[in-house]
Amino acid sequence: MAERSQNLQDLFLNTVRKKKISLTIFLINGVKLTGVITSFDNFCVLLRRDGHSQLVYKHAISTIMPGQPLELEIEEGPDRSQNLQDLFLSTVRKKNIALTIFLINGVKLTGVVTAFDNFCELLRRDDHAQLVYKHAISTIMPGQPMQMFENEEGAAREAS
Which family does it belong to (predicted)? Predict the structure, then answer.
């Protein structure tokens, strides 16, 4: 997952743009925007609704929810285990562990992480996928106990 020609965010945004999928963008402040993404770059997306376009800065976005199920061709790559965040996300993804994710605005999301990169996580619940920007996340809680290290107690002592 680490080194790909296209990151998760670009793959997701290109797919919804090319298929002209109606979606809802949830901003960090709780505002909901709906429309179709017509363009995007590293910093913003252009959202069109009823013939009008608006520029939305990515730093203000918490999640993007397509209005219909979305199939993404996600390439599996080598594990990203350089840091605790990547190790945690790799573990819950591989073990298909259901998560509760709390955003900084208090919103609670549930689902399974199917992919992630440095900036986003793809959260799937039932047939629907939601792109979640990491800058909007405060806490991630697994729905079951999990072991990330071979010797969990030893790893905890080493970290202290």
Answer: Belongs to the Hfq family.
For residue 66, what is the enclosing H or E element? Answer: strand 61-66
- Domain boundaries, position 58: 8-69+80-159
- For the whole model, what pTM was predicted? 0.82
DSSP state, 160?
Answer: -
**Who contacts 16 (Cβ-Cβ below 8 Å, separation ≥6)?**
23, 36, 37, 64, 66, 70
The residue-averaged pLDDT of 85-105 equals 94
CATH of residue 21: 2.30.30.100
Q: Is 101 a member of any domain? A: yes
Residue 74 lies in a domain: no
Q: How far apart are CA 81 and CA 121, in angstroms?
A: 16
56 forms beta bridges with 45
Q: What is the DSSP letter of 126?
A: T
The count of domains in the chain is: 1
37-90 pLDDT, tens digit each: 999 999 999 999 999 999 999 999 999 999 999 888 777 655 555 688 999 999
3-class SS at 136? Answer: helix
